[in-house]
């Protein structure tokens, strides 16, 4: 994962979920979190449980699995949706999954399905459905001859959360999955709209919270949540690294190495040989990033072939100082070989030395 950059809604949900679960534990309010038809709603008319139970988990194990799933799955879905659409999706998933769960316990409480555990099961499994439908399988691996997708670790966490309080947890997870499925379809629902008041029947994915409300919440909670820095990556994966590196730097390094080599050979041979600063080497030393400052072997060979074919040879002959410096460095080679190397290298002493080294070896 790469942090919470561009995933402020998921970050806020995780922080709110952790604070509410911790507060319920410290205040000894866990018995008031789950949704139970008999006797809490039917006898004592505690309808507020319908609105409270999605906001906190009842124990730390479910909280840990829920937070891991939100971080692993919710961040990517929010980045693909955008913050406003993702916040609208969270609102729709919470309302619809709670309605489905409450309706199911009303009709099936006679068969033993009487309570739903506390926690945002509807939100988590609705996000998991979007993750299942939109995120492809990047890689797979084999274990004991069986091929598994990399998503298997996410499904293991989800299975542990489903089986935490059966059958109520299974019903809550199924309600969230159905909500995620309905969100991706074009099934019309009665959705009020401020911008289009006449168009009431629309798909769930067409619902958006008002821009004013979204901006207001962003101004309120952004200072509290803070800005998530971008993930830290190695410099070698940054785009444009090869283009951004000046080619003249490598040429300057080669020129510096040539100077050291000439100085060492002159010290051993008793002759002081200083390479002549041609326009090419001068441009390389001064950091000029032009095309002429970086002659390559292939470019030099092509230029020589063109000059031979067109008869446009270089008019200037090598100087005696250049010939003497290279002759002292390569006493076993003839004067003609030194002159030929200087001419072929366009009077570039560095390239001439490299050519003579290859010839002498």
UniProtKB/TrEMBL annotation:
This is CUE domain-containing protein. The chain crosses the membrane at residues 12-29, 86-108, 115-132, 152-174. Residues 318-361 form the CUE domain. InterPro entries: CUE, Peptidase_S54_rhomboid_dom, Rhomboid-like_sf, UBA-like_sf. It is found in: Membrane. The keyword Metal-binding does not apply. It comes from Vanrija albida. It comes from the Eukaryota. The keyword Phosphoprotein does not apply.
